[in-house]
Design a protein that fits this description.
Chains A, B: Keywords: DNA-binding, Transcription, Transcription regulation. Chains A, B: InterPro entries: Cro/C1-type_HTH (IPR001387), HTH_LacI (IPR000843), LacI/GalR-like_sensor (IPR046335), Lambda_DNA-bd_dom_sf (IPR010982), Peripla_BP_I (IPR028082). Chains A, B: Residues 2-56 form the HTH lacI-type domain. The structure is a homodimer of 338-residue chains. With 338 residues, chain A is of the alpha/beta class. Chain A contains 13 helices and twelve strands. Chain A starts with a helix and ends in an 11-residue tail after the last strand. At the A-B interface, helix 4, helix 5, strand 2 and helix 7 of A face helix 4, helix 5, strand 2 and helix 7 of B. The structure holds a DNA duplex (30 and 30 nucleotides).
DNA sequence: TTGAAAATCCGAAACGTTTTGGAAAAATGA
DNA sequence: TCATTTTTCCAAAACGTTTCGGATTTTCAA
């Protein structure tokens, strides 16, 4: 592997000059620069990023810390879409992405900042970690620039991008209300997700503004899991036959709910209306097609990467809130009279 | 950021001793080792991987070079599943994954080996590149350990993992033959994919063994794209009304074909049977559910990572061929008597 | 021609590790 | 006690780059 030294020797100059020639400094004559570049090309030289990073004290690397890279997460390819967005932006820069994964216990033995400092990443993007994750407290304490996805924590070193969860949920519930539903349940995620709290709030706001009483026992947690949601929904609808509509905090859970309804011989949307959240790929393919609140996951990743690079270039951490959109499909209908 | 030097000073020993203590060498007394470890913990030390990599001449990093990280690739989450498999294996090792992306023209300005050498990756996994990609020739020429996915190229430095494409395709076509079909078309990918060639061969073998004549004009290329496949299928089925079944080299193309058939008011599977390849998530959700050849993409990634790490530890490159499985769903039926 | 300014170049230190070859200290055996 | 072995430690070089401060050469105006 040829180094800067080899080039220097071949060109009869010092390593300093080679370095400065290759990096476009002005204090090297065009003649020698040309010679050096030619020789570099001829010797098939590529710079050693490790050495450079070491001395420059920045690695031109960002860490991507996601939780959703599991076998089971392929259905809801939220993680993948976010990653794609990140990748898309980063590809336009001179940074590279290094993948940390949080699912393995192996990595879990290291703390967040250990993970980052060992690899000397310049910044991190975090997605999918729970609010009680020890990593989270570390993020704010550490001085590594960081942008969070769907976690509203901010400091001068950490920004975040999220969607208008409260408003999105509100729109979904209002849609149900407009269809005449009054007995509306909610399948929420879990207490360790900010989005759950926010979507619950949206649910509350919509109901209260419409002067519809809220039945607390009609709000259950499905842990963002299809199976769990199915089980919970089965219980709920057997015990509470008056429910005519349910708002789910994720499409995956909505699928679970629909499975439960099928088992109970309740038709969607004739007997009960279902609305989801996310607009995952499957939403438009299941039958009936799912009414849902769409969020642009690709853009979330893209914006996160953009913000992080901005921060690395000296700008300050921001908050980006993307708009959601209610997509009405076939799983919601007017409430039955009587 | 505390370094090994700081620890040495605090402990009153040399950096050598600190290094050797921390790395578990035997030539340091338990007493001093304990002291050093305590101080390291207390100073919140984490080793600088860059410096280590530089001197050790290995980065404990593998490159992941995928082509499918695009917005349009979310439907067919082949790439994501492979990545998940890779990630799953790597998580158990002390390696990290660095993400290269081939779609950006920015990166494309660098050659394959430049990409790898700059970041000093110890090895690479390549997925989704075409057979005419200039990267490919570089792979074999370069001396970087590499494992390819679905590309049958082998040397002492490069291995690959793939599935039994010929046999898989053969099973799919045989299934159609057993249902009584004789007028069978094929929607292939493109000429720059090995899997296309192999699946075509499987198609041929099945037909020939059953003594069914092959109509070359019934084999068309859909470029692995849903839209392209839809257009091609539309042409094909308007011009050739005798076709009763079609084998597609990917599920995504099968979806496109089904769209075309719907437009032409041909029912699946009553009028024409469709079988796909891959078993993507959507396959079981579309209506009618798609009969297809399932391949375990997660395992492909997992095996690839496993092989690569093996190679980095001195073992030689291998070839791993995974089995596929025909999954019969609703899109295939017996040919109409007519 | 001369002096100053501008243009080129370079030596050496630094970044944070690992490793080599040996030195010093302690333990052991006679 | 002394010689020998074993244990424990260390100085210095090396990895490949960047950069600081200064040195040398060239250019140019007077």
């Amino acid at each position: 592997m040829t180094t800067i030294k080899d080039i220097a020797k071949a060109a009869g100059v010092s390593v300093t000059t080679v370095s400065r020639a290759l990096n476009g400094y002005s204090d090297v004559s065009e003649k020698t620069r040309k010679k050096i570049i030619d020789i570099a090309k001829q010797l098939n030289y590529s710079p050693n990023t490790l050495a450079r990073s070491l001395v420059m004290n920045k690695s031109k690397t960002i860490g991507l810390l996601v939780s959703g890279m599991t076998r089971s997460a392929v259905k809801d390819n939220f993680t993948f879409e976010v990653m794609t967005g990140v990748n898309d932006y980063i590809a336009k820069t001179d940074y590279d992405v290094i993948l940390f994964n949080t699912n393995s216990t192996k990595q879990r033995e290291k703390t967040y900042s250990q993970l980052c400092r060992e690899r000397r990443v310049d910044g991190v993007i975090l997605q999918g970690i729970k609010t009680d994750d020890p990593y989270l407290t570390e993020v704010v304490e550490s001085d590594i620039p960081c942008v969070l996805i769907d976690i509203p924590i901010q400091s001068d070193r950490v920004g975040y991008v999220t969607t208008d969860n409260v408003y999105g949920a509100k729109k979904a519930v209002q849609h149900l209300l407009e269809l005449g539903h009054r007995n509306i349940a909610m399948m929420n995620g879990h207490d360790y997700a900010f989005v759950s709290k926010q979507r619950l709030q949206g649910f509350y706001e919509a109901m209260e503004e419409a002067n519809v009483p809220i039945r607390k026992e009609w709000v259950v947690n499905g842990d963002f899991s299809e199976e769990m949601a199915e089980a919970r929904a089965y219980e709920l609808f057997t015990n509470e036959p008056n429910i005519t509509a349910i708002f789910c905090a994720s499409d995956l859970m909505a699928l679970g709910v629909m499975k439960a309804l099928k088992q109970l011989h309740l038709r969607v949307p004739d007997d009960v209306s279902v609305v989801g959240y996310d607009d995952i790929l499957l939403a438009s393919y299941v039958s009936p097609a799912l009414t849902t609140v769409a969020q642009n996951k690709f853009q979330m990743g893209y914006e996160a990467a953009s913000m992080l690079i901005d921060m690395l270039e000296g700008n300050e951490a921001k908050v980006v809130t993307l708009r959601t959109q209610l997509v009405v499909r076939e799983s919601t209908a007017e409430v039955k009279k009587g």
